[in-house]
Amino acid sequence: MLNVNDYHYKKILVLGLAKSGVVAASLLHQLGAFVTVNDYKPFEENPDAQGLLEQGIKVVCGSHPVELLDEGFELIVKNPGIPYSNPLVQGAVELGIPIITEVELAYQISEADIIGITGTNGKTTTTTLIYEMLDKASRNPLIAGNIGTVASEVAQKATSENTMVVELSSFQLMGIRTFRPHIAIVTNLYEAHLDYHDSWEEYANAKMNITKNQLESDYVIVNADQKELMDLISFTKAKIIPFSTKEFIQDGASIRNGMLTFMGEDIISLDEIVLPGAHNLENILSAAAAVKLMGVDNEAIRKVLTSFTGVKHRTQFVEEINGRKFYNDSKATNILAASSALNAFDEPIILLAGGLDRGNSFDDLIPSLKGVKALVLFGETAKKIEKAGTEAGIQTILHVNNVEDAVPAAYEISNAGDVILLSPACASWDQYRTFEVRGDIFIEAVHKLKKSS
């Protein structure tokens, strides 16, 4: 860990706990700051806050009082999940107090090079692929960010022998000042999280922050199939490495004659790649480009791509029961992600979908419902998705209470050869704390069904 003196004797507010807030507060305390932690959960129900108090850190719990700003903080480290519309955050902005997220701290203390991955969809798969490829090449990678351990915790252990592979959300990237990955990746960019961001422009600009501090010696890997994204990224000082699933690119990653290529060099035949779905080609191309820039040999890439079948909660094969294949795609929290999963299969699909109602319709899902033979719906959006399913011509549509009930219901109306796919097209928060919890409940229900079959 690099010795950072920037925070000695500074008054810093850590706003919101969860994993990132706990790590940030402890780290700043270790770096000599005067830390105050503010969390919405009451102190008596808040073991994280209790643990920080035992370290000698001041804690304020139960609300986010704007009056806290009277204490003269010089910096706020904000939990990414707390929106900028929060009155305390708005007050800090008006006072000109800098607001960062903990990934900024991670960058400042890390001895390791950083590969940062963002985009609307595909971040987790791309991050995991890069980690696995670097690992196969014995490059000592460390995985961090949204996908795993908090980045500023991983950074404390990182040395110059490591490479940090960090998945980054728009929420995190809004709170950076100096963060600079050696290699940045933008997998794609579609409308998302507009319940958090004020506008598409704010969302897109947050994503572009991944490259705003990069220099000529750095790289940014970008989806060349999206012209708007290529236009947005044109301001960067980094060397742009494009990738495309639609056309051959000599100076990037693409497909030629059924082969995955980088800088014109054939790496692996598409027939050898076991990860399903055309959408995953984008993730594979960007991951291969990143590790080739790091000097990884083709054999390490091939070893991963001939064995890697997906990450948990992202088109994850769970089990086959009497000829029915069950897939967990709980991480599909928007229409585009669900569409990508649906388009990955040629078999008849029974789709399990529904969740938090963010006010949008599901008209954009209709084209991808053509291969769906039945819908099993739950959550706040069940009626809206039923409407889209009816317009797509789906005859069999069931409503159930939750994911656990959806599994046996789907099995009852299925036939051998069907795919039973959980791909909700919605966030989980109407019924489940996280999409991971939702996916785990699906997996448990599938295993329970197999035992009883």
UniProtKB/TrEMBL annotation:
Its EC number is 6.3.2.9. Residues 313-426 form the Mur ligase C-terminal domain. It comes from the Bacteria. GO terms for cellular component: cytoplasm. It is an enzyme of class 6 (ligase). It holds the Pfam family Mur_ligase_C. Residues 117-291 form the Mur ligase central domain. Keywords: ATP-binding, Cell cycle, Cell division, Cell shape, Cell wall biogenesis/degradation, Cytoplasm, Ligase, Nucleotide-binding, Peptidoglycan synthesis. It is found in: Cytoplasm. It catalyses: UDP-N-acetyl-alpha-D-muramoyl-L-alanine + D-glutamate + ATP = UDP-N-acetyl-alpha-D-muramoyl-L-alanyl-D-glutamate + ADP + phosphate + H(+). Pathway: Cell wall biogenesis; peptidoglycan biosynthesis. GO terms for biological process: cell division; cell wall organization; peptidoglycan biosynthetic process; regulation of cell shape. ATP binds at G119, T120, N121, G122, K123, T124, T125. Coiled coil: none annotated. One of its GO terms (molecular function) is UDP-N-acetylmuramoylalanine-D-glutamate ligase activity. HAMAP family: MurD. Belongs to the MurCDEF family. Cell wall formation. Catalyzes the addition of glutamate to the nucleotide precursor UDP-N-acetylmuramoyl-L-alanine (UMA). This is UDP-N-acetylmuramoylalanine--D-glutamate ligase. It comes from Lederbergia citri.
